[in-house]
Amino acid sequence: MKQPIFLDNAATTRTDREVIEAMSPWLDENYGSPATLYTLGAQSKQAIEEARQQVGDLIGADSKDVYFTSGATESNNWAIKGVADAREEQGRHIITSVAEHHSILMPCKFLEKKGWEVTWLPVDGEGVVDPGSVASVIRDDTVLVTLAHANHEIGTIQPVADIARITRERGVAFHVNAAQGVGHVPLDVQELGCDLLSLSAHKFYGPKGAGALYARRGTRITPLIHGGAQEKKRRAGTQNVAGIVGLGKAAELARRNLEAEAKRLTGLRDYLMESIEGKFEDIRLNGHRTNRLPNNVNYSIEGIEGESIMLSLSYPTADDARPVYISTGSACVSGTLEPSHILLALGVPAELAHGSVRVTMSRETNREDIDYLVKALYEVTERLRSMSPVYKRGSKKCATGSAEGCDCEAAS
Length: 412
Hints:
seven-stranded mixed β-sheet, three-stranded antiparallel β-sheet, globular
């Protein structure tokens, strides 16, 4: 089989070789527990603190406010449940949106079952939460607003700083799930103004199973995991030293070339969008056209199933073909027959949402990869449409799904 082209980097990224090398000693000769006082333990503790500084530097945080976890899912759960428990006497009301990752949705639904009230804000047709809608639903008993910095499926970036100004004025804690943005776009917790921020190493070339929660000094939050006194008594359990070292190294590497790589990927993203829209009929761009992550493109393709496209690209039949790995949405819910709740929240019809594909690029992606993807995707689309009992080729539509007569550039 020829070398695959991996374009599902929102699900996970390849661990950087420098990260693996940095982790290796902590899986072998430097195996001491950081909780012990002898030399092996002291070395591990020092390595953890160095990684804490590296993560703090990446997100503009004081390293003392960085707590290591197993990843963004744990960090999100900790932020939501921990703030809810710590501030329960102030109120039992939380605000989020209908288009969040399941590691936000499910903790909020869990609290609903415990008697909490959750306000589920809508998003507009591009996936944006209106800061004014946040302000309009904050109440005296609201204790937390929790939203993504950037959507994991459609890449839309939220007006986080504007929302933070509102929550600060109203004395409400603000948590940001930044798993998709950290390491890919410049993020500074001081400029964002958030109280809590979640991140995950494997989203920016670090190892799986390592992440962090930033909690601004003075933010009241109850531990999610109880036991020992690790992580300043806030997160019990022997630390994953190798994973934490890998996270720190990934943060250092991301910070080194962040703006240049974001610019390069933005160019590739726009080239991909132009290529698709110049070749395909009856498609819809999902998410904001420009205010989106530099590596994320998501389209709905009329008349066929996204899963069929994904499998056809993954297992090409031609001997000289290269597998191309993309996704139909979030990897956390792949396999479900339900259309994406995020696309439905944008107002995409269910039958069109079923035909969505997500392409997310990485440091390794180049222009040749994009050209190959577009050619292969077009061939697969045409073949599947020719077999579809429901698809009828119509007039060419613009990338927002409008009918013939649209005067936007994509329709010209």
